[in-house]
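Supplementary Note 3. Input sequence used for the single-chain structure prediction.
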Amino acid sequence: MSRRPVILLAAGLAALGGLLLIISLASLRGPWAAPPSTATPAALVPTALPPLASVTPAPVSSTTPAPAATPVPKPDIGVQGEFIGPEGDSGIQSAANLGVSWIKQQIDWNSIEYARGLYRWGELDHLVAEAQKHGLKILFSVARAPGFSRPEPVEEDGPPSDFAIFRDFMRALSARYQGRVAAYELWNEPNLKREWRGFDLSAAKFVELIRAGAAGVREGDPTAIIISGAPAVTGIDDRINAIDDRVFLREMIAAGVGEAVDAIGVHPYGAANPPDERAADAVHLRSGYNSHPSFFFLDTLEDYHTILRDANIDKPLWVTEFGWPSIENFGEVDTAGWEYARDVTEADQAAYLLRALQLRRERPWVGPLIIWNLNIAPLFGAERAESAYGLLRPDGSKRPAYQQLRRAGE
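The predicted structure, written as discrete structure tokens, is reproduced below.
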């Protein structure tokens, strides 16, 4: 998920075994791909952002407010958000105030390299400098090749025709921020067609791209951590729109991904299911989105660990995206295709995130957890699906998840 999640309905009752399937287009990139519920989708009703209103300043109190308590440090917890642009500094401040040690920014490669070997570094330079001021470690996730590198006709969201171009970009990026950007995630959810246009879906081809990107990073900054781009937990395996993430991971391993990276990326989204619930449980809290392991946070972690262990790969799993959406206090929101967001209260969201941190402590093979997301809602409004995953509300106020995470340790 990690760019702005867009929901794509992949209908095909006959072709896909009688199931109506949803691919959730994510991120900035955010929500994951999942089959829909049986509910009839509501009509899409766009919600316009309210106009800015003039605000009368509140009277200044003569009493000095007590300083806010220092957040509990969380060395291996991070948050993904938008830290580029006019509100980037505010986002970095909000992350630092949360007590996390990592921020993740997804980089649209096509917005940086505008012609072969020519780069716009200004916004990234500023982000890196501001994060350093706050003592935050940076994970850059890189995807979306620039148009000049793509096959004709140029389609959105795909790799370059020549993977050497990716190597060159990763070398330039990592060399510029040597010692200042701690980790790089190479691509995003490559088992989805929307992220891999221009080629047939292929884990082996994806590993070729990883090898090229990793070589560039090793040349630019040998100390940086390299993470394989995480597959989407889709549950779809038609090999046209998507390949099931467990199948895709096994094929990545067969193609040698373990030799190319320092860690394996994973996106264990859990729909509306509590983090320690499993697909095989006799009873489920929720009445929908509970029929496949892809809908369960812990199933995904455990399945990936088993796949790596069976292949004798001793690499940590980096949770580069995870979270639970809640539309509580969001007003009218169209949730067709991701109805589970209506089952999660803000209190649930907070409790599930805290429980996920506890589950990580019990599993030494899990590396850092990066929460999706911090500040999409105040930037893009309640009508954006990924906003529901945020720790901040559309008006910028802190949700219980933010407040409780701030006080929580790892």
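The chain has a mean pLDDT of 86. The two ends are 24 Å apart (CA to CA).
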